[in-house]
Amino acid sequence: MRSADSGDLWWKNAVFYCADIETFYDWNGDGTGDIRGMTDRLEYLNDLGVTCLWLMPFYPTARKDDGYDITDFYGVDPRLGTLGDFVELVRTAKSKGIRVIVDFVMNHTSDAHPWFKSARRSKDDPYRDHYVWSATEPKSSPKDVVFPDQEDSNWELDRKTGEWYLHHFYKHQPDLNIENPKVQEEISRTLGFWLELGVSGFRVDAVPFLFAKDAVPGQIDVFDPFQYLGDIRNFITRRLGDAVLLGEVNVPYKEQKKFFGGADGDGLNMQFDFIGMQQIYLSMARGDARPIAKALRQRPTLDPTSQWANFIRNHDELTLDKLSDTERQEVFDAFGPDPDMQLYGRGLRRRLPPMLGGDERRMKMAYSLAFSLPGTPVLFYGEEIGMAENPEIPGRLAVRSPMQWTGGTNGGFSSAVKRRLTRPLPDGLYGPERVNAADQRRDHGSFWWFMRNLIYTYREQPEIGWSTVEILKQPNRAVLAHVCREESGWSMIALHNFGAEGCIVALELDAVAPGSVLVDLLDGRTEIELDKSGRVELDLGPYGYRWLRVLGPEEEPII
Ligand code: NOJ
After folding, report:
1. pLDDT tens for each residue of 341-371
2. pLDDT greater at residue 468 or residue 1
3. Which of 56, 133, 194, 250 would be a feasible disulfide site paired with 20, CB 3.0-4.6 Å?
4. pTM higher than 0.90, yes or no?
């Protein structure tokens, strides 16, 4: 980790936090969160230790996919505020050392976007080629469809013009034709626009669909989507040297490599580790660390200009699509047996705490693991206080209920009357009376303080983000023992117990310099001695977790 790089590649050891302006904090009391509310709560994020805020779509929208159906790429949904408010938000965040990235959703538009409205008027409309059309009905199988509850094909007949248009998601989200130079120009213009307004990069939506070749019957296609991804990367870097592209790429590890680009980093900088995330759930369901250990062994080692984004939950369903049918069933049985908790046959519309029956030991173990792996952690709002979903909200949006700030009216999210709230808050065990930020910030034993401590410990060890991982041998199946190493010689051992029984983990650390000690980073920085041949025995509680920094005999104590 060279210090020059660590400034430019700031995202290698940032702490990302995803929030939806609509559900974060309602500043004007109309029932919907807004940009001024988000700005108001930046100090909270600063205190928590967040260094990069990822904003979910806040653009003008037809409101059929929670903002992912955009009608104008250059604006702000008037319910949420104005462009002026947006610039203030980014400016204020910057002054607190928080960068802002925004969702970039140009795989598709809304069908209410003026381009599509124009395109469907006639086959020779100037906007026709902004979208992908086929004169005959292309073959599409139900397994190609992302939302099988509502769609049965990726192609929809447009009655007026008698041709089919491509839509990887809902039929009201027609895919843009990124092969069209005019669309490419709009893409650059959009990216450039938001960069000028101060953002530090983009979370790129639906990457494998955006950078794909879609076979339109009868057409020969020479377009190379990866070359185009490289062009976008270059364009962004010209505009802002240290801008980040964080991609949503849920494909097997081998296929992920090509989205990072070549050794000169001409692709995405970061990709979510969907595979590792799913294997963590399988390990939790089984009380057996081997699935995640195996995934980590297979996870490609990245060059320094690329990075994994580690996460436990996000704003969508917990997808388990990369597990086998029997593995997925095991996770369903453990964490979402009720059919109403399941979605699309592949996922769970739940947040972590209720899946684990509110067992804080297991919750802490899961987050500790996500933060201890090489990569950059990404949190979804409310995870820091152990918020649950609201199952009353239909579909995926169950996990997008309003942030729970206080135990008061509407969880402190809004002063509007309840029926005007953009979405209802949950009641009962996980309702705001019991789970809220204000109470937890006053209680140093709370989950919020656990998360804050984890965040600061991660930030104090920037090498984690630059490290490579090796799984250590030890006999307990329930335990993952891994070591992160970074080129300066820094190393950290982490232990995670997926089992309900405490145990002793015996390690042989023969590569460690004689006279080294292990410093317990999460527990009072106590020092543990190794014997002469590097052997050590470590206690690990039920669902326990430990981060142990290896401190060489010549090194200064950790302050
Ligand atoms: C992925 C987003 O995460 C999801 O919420 C959205 O519905 C689709 N892309 C379509 O934009």
Report:
1. 999 999 999 999 999 999 999 999 999 999 9
2. 468
3. 56
4. yes
Q: Which residues of 378-397 are buried (b: 16+ CB within 10 A; e: fewer)?
A: bbbbbbbbbbbbbbebeebb
- The answer to whether the beta carbons of residues 274 and 322 sit under 8 Å apart is yes
Q: In this structure, are residues 57 and 109 in contact, taking their beta carbons and an 8 Å threshold?
A: no
Answer whether 18 contacts ligand 1 (Cβ < 6 A): no
Residue 248 annotated among the catalytic residues of the structure: yes
Cβ-based burial of 77 (10 A; exposed 0-12, middle 13-18, buried ≥19): buried
Give one DSSP letter per residue of 463-476, joined into a string. GGGG-EEEEPP-S-
Query: Does the beta carbon of 65 sit less than 6 angstroms from any atom of ligand 1?
Result: yes
Mean residue pLDDT across the chain: 96
Query: Could you confirm whether 205 is annotated as catalytic?
Result: yes
**Pocket test residue of 56, 105, 204, 380 for ligand 1, highest count of atoms within 8 A of CB:** 105
- CA atoms within a 13 Å half-sphere pointing along the CA-CB vector of 478: 20
Domain segments of the chain as ranges: 12-105+181-459, 114-166, 468-551
Distance 43 CA to ligand 1 centre (A): 29
DSSP labels for 128-194?
Answer: GGGB-EESS-----GGG-S-TTT-S-SEEEETTTTEEEE-SS-TTSPBB-TTSHHHHHHHHHHHHHH
Strands (E), 186-272: 201-204, 244-247, 270-272
Residue 169 alpha carbon to ligand 1 centre in Å:
8
Distance 315 CA to ligand 1 centre (A): 9
Asked if 303 contacts 267 with a C-beta cutoff of 8 angstroms, the reply is no
- pLDDT tens for residues 273-308? 999 999 999 999 999 999 999 999 999 999 988 999
Q: Is 249 near ligand 1, meaning CB less than 6 Å away?
A: no
User: Is 205 near ligand 1, meaning CB less than 6 Å away?
Assistant: yes
- CB neighbour class for 312 (10 Å; exposed up to 12, middle 13-18, buried from 19): buried
**CATH code linked to domain 114-166:** 3.90.400.10
Model confidence over 440-475: pLDDT tens digits?
A: 999 999 999 999 999 999 999 999 999 999 999 999
| Residue 69 CA, closest ligand 1 atom number | 11
Task: Give me the architecture of the 12-105+181-459 domain, per CATH.
Answer: Alpha-Beta Barrel (3.20)
Q: Choose the residue to mutate in 169, 176, 314, 396 for probing ligand 1, maximizing ligand atoms within 8 Å of C-beta.
A: 169
- Nearest alpha carbon, ligand 1 atom 11: 68
Contact 432, 404 (CB under 8 A): yes
CATH number of the 468-551 domain: 2.60.40.1180
- In Å, how far are 54, 187, 231, 234 from 238, measured between CA atoms? 22, 15, 11, 6
Which residue among the candidates 248, 327, 384, 389 is catalytic per the annotation?
248
Task: Give the Å distance between the CA of 57 and the centre of ligand 1.
Answer: 10
Residue 68 CB less than 6 A away from ligand 1: yes
